[in-house]
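Lab notes, practical 5.
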Amino acid sequence: MSLKDFFTRRRLNRLQRDLNMLRDTIKFNPYAVAMIDSETDKDFSRRITEYRVWSMGNSYVLRRFFVGTLEYRTCNYFWTRAPLSYRMIHSGLPGLICSKMPRILFGNGIAPTVSVYKDSGEVDKNKTKAATDYTLQLIDKVKLRDVLTECATNESWGGHSFIKFSFDTDLSNFPIIEAADIMSTEVVKERNETVAIIFKTWYEDKKKGNQQRKYRLDEIYTTDATGDAVIRYELYELTTGEEKRVPLNSIPETQKIVEAVNGDDEVVFTGLKGMLAFEKPNKLPSLEFPHSNYGASDFEGATDSFDAVDEAYSTIINEIRDNRTFRYFASHNFRRDKDTGEILTPDDGFTKNFVLTEGDIDQEQGVNKNRIVDQIPDKTEEHKAKYLTAVTVALNKAGLSPYSIGITGLESINQSAESQQERNKVTLETRKAKLELWTPYLSNVLSQLLAFNTYLLNTVGAKQDDMPLPDMDITLSTVTIDFGEYLQDTDKDLVDIWGLAKSQGISSTQNAVRELHKSWSEKQILDETNVILFENGMATDTPNGLPDLTGIETDDTDNDDEDDKDGKENKKEKQGGDTA
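Output from the prediction step:
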């Protein structure tokens, strides 16, 4: 070994020792710290149940949940610690967040475009328009907008939303679309790929002796080895505390399924590729359950603030009840119980604003020695400021701005576009993040809806005479979605924007009119453009263009006849004058 190789090896060995030391220093050692495992099925189920309870907005259910759950007693929550004599009021804020979410996402509607291509790869405009119109009719027939509203609400509190397709020609000749929440659905994934979605329905059935038996029906949406859509049905009896699979005809509710399935309790849609069910996370990732198959709820990290909002709101209401005018009464003015001698006072649990005293209340009162009135300072405004602060924090944690759900009074109201952007900044960021998930998801749903509807027409024999299928292979088209803008410019903003664009020479008059009057037809836009150009004096430069500018048609023949007639009369008058 040469001297150079010797020093090189020694230097590399020293470097390796340093790297090993560094690796041992910074690696995570789970045995070195005490960790609490919060990603169990029990923890996940309890948290989802809590989110559902918050969204329900029922004060009685909230109280029972938090008092009955041991884990929450250490958090010193208002709903856990408030005494029974205290008036506990729920603000309804979590439910308001859920109900407003569909409006934030789909408030300006959804505009699908079904692009159909020619053999050359170019878009066929005529077929694209026909396919898009057909899709819009189908959306109305299957009530997809209502389903999307339910999905947006469910995923807001649950963190995930689900859609399933099915059919029943006794009910409808169109696909049946249903939404489901996370409490009744399970996602099965393999290496982050969804391979099945299980929809669960619970039943209770009375057997002999009025014994109550519980059952669960699993509808397993998946695909077979060839990629065709499959729905498999499994019925389980849960009475013994264990899951025991039983035949589908065990209860009346599932008798009809027996007639539709094959020997493996499956319905196979031969030739229809892809699952007939869909799942979508609300937000990613879930910081509380990062290793689960589900998304993050809007309530994640905000439940503590929800409790604070309820405490602040309840304080305001109790301020109204408790801080009424206090009256001091001499006890000898009240009746007493004949047996016990106790003073008889109102015992309704509501009238508390009085104090009984023995003897004269105040010798210096003069006229009325039996009663003194004290006015308690009202602190409602102070509590209101604290309440609005708590509301703002809770909404921001949920990813919304107070103004977006209709809460005003936190800031001045200005209708300018810039002001709307600032007031709704948090909401706009949340909407953008959610639509990044909704856009491809809804495209897949609509594509499969078109394919499934075509399958029902061609294979099942569904009758849709009022909506004939276009003469094209609509299943080979591509679907894109436009959700529109959340914030709409005011009329003044539009005039300022397009007026400036016109004056700067970067927009034509016709384009400005089109943007200001989006509901107008092309003829209305052209007529208005012509009138504006005429009023601006363009007709004086090119008189021959007057009919084109004004849109007023003139009959050239009639004008020529009038001119000839006037000329002949003038000539005749002139000749007559000369003769005279």
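Observations recorded by the TA: The two ends are 142 Å apart (CA to CA). The first helix runs from residue 3 to 26.
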